Amino acid sequence: MPNNPFDSFHDMVAEAKAEREQLDRLLTISTPRERLLVAAIGLLLAVLVGWLFLGSVPRTVTLNAVLVEGEKTVQALARVESDVAQHIEAGMPAVIELGAAPGTQIRFNGTVAAIAVEPSWSDGLSATAHRVDVSFDADPGTAAKVGAFCWITMELGRQPPIALFGTGRS
After folding, report:
1. Domains of the chain
2. Of residues 152, 154, 151, the one with CA closest to residue 58
3. Taking the CA of residue 168 as centre, how many other CA atoms within 13 Å lie in the half-sphere pointing to its CB?
4. Which residue stretches of 112-163 are H helix?
5. Alpha helices for 55-129 (secondary structure H)
6. CB count in 10 Å sphere of residue 68
């Protein structure tokens, strides 16, 4: 509205009315480019939600282990809690990583030989500790020394990504 005190009241009202009629042109809520951006973001969110429920991701577990003398060869022995142990079965493939020298790791393929409750590790909670024995598929030779620490990695299966939000840990 004009601030000129010498304009008549009727002129000021007419000008204000003309401004209100132009309000739809002056205040554009969104341009076509902005609508396209909102539609693209909506489509991206819809694809993400679809993937969360219909997609699949591998569930792997890596266990700290120690090499022990087995029946015929060296085996890797690990401790695992019961929530993970219920997904591990004898015969599952596993990858055993040995730390040979600083910065280098040697990988061997292996197979889960056995899984059993281990009461000596449980400290009174026998249902929470399980022993996992993993045998090497090939002879590791001199790289595997009894008592050396290693890591066992196993794929426990596939699951939808939305399941990752409810597990707390994997």
Report:
1. 9-54 (no CATH), 58-167 (2.40.30.170)
2. 154
3. 2
4. 119-122
5. 82-85, 119-122
6. 13
DSSP label at residue 160: -
Contacts of 30 (CB under 8 A, 6+ apart): 38
Q: Taking the model in full, what pTM does it have?
A: 0.59
Selection from 1, 5, 6 nearest residue 17 by Cα: 1
Tell me the pLDDT of the chain (170 aa) as tens digits. Answer: 556 666 677 787 777 777 766 666 655 667 888 889 999 999 999 999 999 999 999 988 888 888 887 666 677 788 887 778 888 888 888 888 887 665 677 888 888 888 887 665 445 544 556 778 887 777 766 566 778 888 888 888 888 999 888 754 44
